[in-house]
Fold this protein.
Amino acid sequence: MADDFFFPGLRNPGNTNNPAASLVTAANVEMFPGVNTLGVSIARIDYAPGGLNPPHTHPRATEIIFVLEGTLEVGFITTDNKLFVKTITKGNVFVFPRGLVHFQQNRGYGPAAVVAAFNSQLQGTQVIAMALFGAKPPVSTDILAKAFMTGNSAVDAIKAKFAPK
């Protein structure tokens, strides 16, 4: 069916009225069956001023973004904890290697948007803070307190922000 190879969902900006002030609209195999077995997918990411696509990783794909509008600070962290960071603007391209923790934040005064392409039909996304503080069942508070060199009450306060509403 021809509609399996068509996805209209990226043409309009996403609603950034949320705590991160950003929205990822994915066009991967889950909603776009035509990419099944092709090893590609795409997404649109919209950011309000200050909006953040928080630190996350894609275990199955490299990501490359093309800036449609706005000014973004983007970066990734290598496996030896070296930060690569850059400010990019309309027309610029930046790549995030497979599996590395990375982020994007709108540093401009107006909205920003990118198109992100992946070399996987289903890149997988693991948001670091959600994985650690919103896991079900939860990661033990004492483990996180020791990992972050803080007290249990600080960890419990963060966990409360990730609890289901």
